[in-house]
Amino acid sequence: MNAAFGLYLHIPFCRQRCHFCAFYLELHRDAAAENFLRALHTELRLYAAKKMTAGRPLRSVYFGGGTPTVLSAGQLTRILSAVRESFDVDRDCEITVEAHPATVGVPDLSALRRAGVTRLSFGAESMHDDELVRIGRPGATADTVEAVVAARTAGFTNINLDLMYGLPGQTLESWQRTLSACCDLSATHLSCYALTVEDGTRLAHDVRREPSRAPDEVLQVEMDQAARRMLTAVGYARYEISNYAKPGFECRHNLLYWTQGHYLGLGPSAQSFVDGVRFGNIANLAAYESALGEGRLPVQDRSVLTAEERLRDAVIFGLRLERGIPTLHLNHHAVNYGYEKVVTLLHTSNLLEEEDECTRLSAQGQLHADSVAEKLF
Ligand code: SF4
Predict the structure, then answer these.
(1) Residue 126 CA neighbour count, 13 Å, CB half
(2) Would you state the pLDDT for residue 82?
(3) Which residues contact 120 (CB under 8 A, 6 or more apart)?
(4) Whole-angstrom Cα distance, residue 359 to residue 70?
(5) Intervals of the chain under pLDDT 70
(6) Is residue 276 helix, strand or coil?
(7) Is 67 a pocket residue for ligand 1 (Cβ < 6 Å)?
(8) What SS3 class is residue 300?
(9) What is the pLDDT of residue 2?
(10) Is 123 in the pocket of ligand 1 (CB under 6 A)?
(11) Which residues pair with 96 in a beta bridge?
(12) Using CA positions, which residue lies closest to atom 2 of ligand 1?
């Protein structure tokens, strides 16, 4: 288990909603942003006074959303100052800001760099304008190129691009050209996510009307294999099913999620896991602000995990990592839940493989990671 401690800050605003997106968010308004900032400061102060955060320096801070960069660099800097007032922050803390490429320029990025931000994560999604239009993602691919150049000018060396595959109208060739364009930009980290159709999204509505817009799972497997081939050939390591990094640029904060590290999530809908307890904030900005206005934490769900449940989560998330998990952990989990035959079958079906007392997904297993996880849950 991982003893590192991280902080996630959910900035619940975007300028508009992309067709595939099911995250909790509100459309950005200046006044709403200021009210949110006041509530977030209160939440930081309430947690700073709690025993669970005492003597635990932050190893990572992650601004996610939503689109954190719809807030001004000044507002993000104020949040970071409030974090430093409330928590000990490690000298080499990884501080990531997610950014929409069209929302940033050199002055803002320079200000974030001066404030101590160490890593930028741009939601590029695709390097083809027609594909962006079809998923309702605002902005153009030229914005991504300009944002990466601006980030470098501002002094950032740790840059991630989020990409998606299986988009309506996307072909294997166009996906490969997207990957190639991102390699040319020399991003140090690439996240490649298979598009999924989430209930309640505009995409789900479009797919009901026009089923051919649904992602083709066979093509997505080919795209996943192409990503692995192309990216590993130019020096990226696939360290998690959806994540590739140049050596030394793995995302420390996201590794917390896959290695049972402890993290606090602040902001509406944010999730936390601290000392074996999972808890989550209410996914409603007004209710979030109202609770904090009364001096209460806006926590809605809370569950204390048993030792068996903690091990189960360590197995399920750990198998997403290239290095896998200790075989001993998998065997204990199998005994806890009566899954011994399932584990044997996963091995004989060549979905799991073992080396040096560690078990991991085989190349075949990585293509079916979700169904392997379901069998072990
Ligand atoms: S920018 Fe990101 S968070 Fe905002 S709607 Fe699009 S996918 Fe969702």
Answers:
(1) 27
(2) 97
(3) 96, 97, 99, 109, 112, 151, 156, 158, 159, 160
(4) 42
(5) 1-3
(6) coil
(7) yes
(8) strand
(9) 57
(10) yes
(11) 62, 119
(12) 66
User: Cβ distance 7 to 83 under 8 Å?
Assistant: yes
User: Would the CB of 18 count as within 6 Å of ligand 1?
Assistant: yes
Please give the Cα distance from 120 to 158 (Å, whole number).
7
Peptide bond into 6 cis (omega under 30): no
Q: Among all chains, which residue has been given the structure tokens 């209930």? A: 199
Judged by DSSP in three states, 195 sits in coil
10 Å Cβ neighbour count for 369?
17
Distance between Cα 67 and ligand 1 center (Å): 7
At 66-85, the pLDDT tens digits run 999 999 999 999 999 999 99
Rounded CA separation 360/191 (Å): 20
Contact residues for 7 (Cβ-Cβ < 8 A; gap 6+)? 58, 60, 61, 62, 83, 87, 263, 264, 266
- pLDDT value at residue 168: 94
Alpha carbon distance 24, 198 (integer Å) = 13
The verdict on the CB of residue 17 being under 6 Å from ligand 1 is: yes
For a ligand 1 pocket test, name from 13, 18, 193 the mutation site with the most ligand atoms within 8 angstroms of its C-beta: 18
- The pTM for the full model equals 0.94
Sign of CA dihedral 38, 43, 46, 48: negative
pLDDT for position 212: 85
Residue 298 CA, ligand 1 centroid: distance in Å = 23
Tell me, rounded to whole angstroms, the distance of Cα 158 from its chain centroid: 16
Mutation test residue for ligand 1: of 10, 15, 23, 97, the one with most atoms within 8 Å of CB:
23
Going by C-beta distance under 8 Å and a sequence separation of 6 or more, which residues neighbour residue 238? 228, 231, 232, 244, 322
Cα of 198 vs its chain's centroid, Å:
16
Distance 124 CA to ligand 1 centre (A): 11
Q: In which element (H, E) is residue 272 found?
A: strand 271-274
Distance in Å, CA 366 to ligand 1 centroid: 27
Over residues 289-302, the pLDDT tens digits come to: 999 999 999 999 99
